[in-house]
């Protein structure tokens, strides 16, 4: 977690190179982390194959308007269980208090041209995460909605453009979406939620990313 990761991000119609971890100043400072996991090519291929073989099991009825697997893949496949453990380890480093957490759910999705995810959040969980198996050129970003407020009280979104093998972790109450995919190819991701096992979410204090320059 000491090595910073830089990714293309955008807000107010402009694009920037931003280092992670970062804080999103919506109401309070909220930590967001993005790191490259470094999973082996064999592991990543196995995860892709499982997702593609499962196909669409949700019929686009969830907020994900793309082909989506069963909700609890980490209970069925060791590869998904291992990935969920990696996500939990990163999330634990972002949590101020020593608390007991568990991986509640985990699913895969394949976006093709015309697919999107509508605005929603994962309220009731502590952390949410998304791992990127395959990101084609010109793929849509991951978008945090209604995040920044300018001096004119205009509220805007914040876009993150992840790369292959990135994992993005954020507070579950953040509203987010994925704009409609306009490019060809397949955008393959795995997502999940982490819950606290021993106290209500409102009691959790999250750790703010340290500024190494200070």
* Second rung of CATH, namely the architecture: Sandwich
Oligomer description = single chain
Widest sheet: strand ordering? 2-1-11-10-13-8-5
Share in helix? 10-25%
* CATH domain class: Mainly Beta
Strand-helix topology:
Elements (H helix, E strand, L loop, with lengths): L4 E7 L2 E7 L1 E5 L1 E9 L4 H14 L9 E2 L1 E2 L9 H16 L7 E11 L4 E5 L6 E8 L7 E8 L5 E6 L5 E6 L4 E3 L8 E10 L18
Antiparallel strand pairs: 1-2, 1-11, 3-4, 4-12, 5-8, 6-7, 7-14, 8-13, 9-12, 9-14, 10-11, 10-13
Can you describe this structure?
The chain is mainly beta and 214 residues long. The protein is globular, with a radius of gyration of 17 Å. It has a 7-stranded antiparallel sheet with strand order 2-1-11-10-13-8-5, with no helix packed on it. A 7-stranded antiparallel sheet has the order 3-4-12-9-14-7-6. It has one domain: Jelly Rolls, CATH 2.60.120. It has 2 helices and 14 strands; from the N terminus they run E-E-E-E-H-E-E-H-E-E-E-E-E-E-E-E.
Distinctive features:
214 residues; mainly beta; Jelly Rolls; seven-stranded antiparallel β-sheet; 2 helices; 14 strands; 14% helix; disordered C terminus
Question: Short description, anyone?
Answer:
This protein is 14% helix and 42% strand. It has 214 residues and is mainly beta. Strand 3 and strand 4 form a beta hairpin.
